[in-house]
From TrEMBL:
The protein's name: Restriction endonuclease
Amino acid sequence: MNWKPRNLRELARMVVGDAEHFPYRSSKYITEFFEDCDLDFVHAGETRQVWAAERIEEVLAMPRATPSVMPDAFIRIIRRLLDKGDAEGDDADRIKALAALNIMLAREGWAAFYDENGLGQLRHIATNTIAQTANPHRPFTPSEIERRDQLLSYLCKCSEDELIEDVLLPLFRQLGFHRITAAGHKDKALEYGKDVWMKYTLPTLHVLYFGIQAKKGKLDSSGVSTANVAEIHNQVTMMLGHEIFDPELSRRVLVDHAFIVAGGEITKQARNWIGNKLDASKRSQVMFMDREDILNLFVVNNLPLPKGALPAVTQAWDDLDDDLPF
């Protein structure tokens, strides 16, 4: 999706420092700005604003999954632009710079903000999702490692319903899935092997349907754990063979893919056992997500921790706040 030339020019003025509240950058420092964003753009004396606008337009043209997802390079530009180390004069917290940037971003349906670590973030206004450089295999910062450990402790003690409601539903919403419907465990007769079903819209506007079968603990295929794997196999078979009703289309549809999600480890033996039990067509429809995947995706997408995963002091303040009459 192309941005309006007016907005490109305005953002370029902020990058080169011709806009109020943003530091002035000469040719050398414009090149260094883009180097800090891991981009190999080199300014060689061209008109600063025009050149910067052309480079930003190139970045926005990079592949993205949907209009509500930003290229990683653009997210890095916004974070560098909002770096608190560039604060000047009476704008020590860069509140004025942030406000000026948001006036422009709002015209394209985006908003910038600082997270709890003081890092600039982008939020898509229509879907309320946060744009992230979400590589779950990158090194984590100390604060991210702390949040990961807190979530790990929560996964060790939460129930299956809490795993679904407090962890999986927010995670899949952030990842771009929509119409997420949790079957719950109160009415097993209506579950048909699905804990959750949801939709994902491809860039071509075709829609895929996903089902999730979640288990709290470890999935293995040895000893007593074999019963759990056999149960999962039966539920996945039911999930792929039973239709769901999509109220947006007013018709019944089949699930295209099934996620098997575990709050613990899914061993290689369990994956192989399930794979051997499924025929070739169904095997290609099944995907696995275990505790490590959940932890990494949750942290890199900067999702708020479930209430039960917060540190004791924070939890006490939250409980007190819930009891206040105002």
